[in-house]
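Board notes (copied after class):
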Amino acid sequence: SQALVAAGRDLLCPAVPVECVPFANSGEFCRGLLGRFDPTHVVAIERPGKGRDGHFHNSRGEIIDGMIADTDPLLRGGKAVSVAIGDGGNELGMGALRPYIEAGVPFGRLICADLPADYTLVSGVSNWWGWGVAALLSLRLGRDLLPADDREARLLDAVVRAGGVDGVTRRRECTVDSLTLEQNLEILRGLRDAAAQSGEATS
């Protein structure tokens, strides 16, 4: 929700404006965003995409249309390269992996988002590929863009305080997809170490 995004933004980058896609006229709004910003890339992370039945679903197969504004037009319009990050198959852009999602994910045939992205990145938790992208950009730019452990902990706490819940347990606690903060930070540290070693190897 807007409140959760705002909580993270207020902690990390308070001067950055946030555009929220409205429920009404969402397609027109999305096309307006693409026209106004003319992006080279559109990145969707953990954003539900519309299934073939025309509905948005969560990983349990439940219809969640009442919670989701339609952002599918962001992948359809413009000339931007699209990058999709997901972990369950219902995320925008995951249509590129439909055969795998239908075969290996519970309710896969129902929940699989219809639209494909140009590049589709899948991990056990979507956040991990978010960090993965930051690690790759760190190597490309020659500077560390990954968040520090304490900053990530403060970010999760701020989102939970703003009303965020764990997507699996549905509880307001500092976990991500039922995994503890420490379990998630282990992945972050591994990416940081891998990026550092790769940087040393190529310098």
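Comment from the instructor: Residues 174 and 180 are 7 Å apart (CA to CA). The two ends are 42 Å apart (CA to CA).
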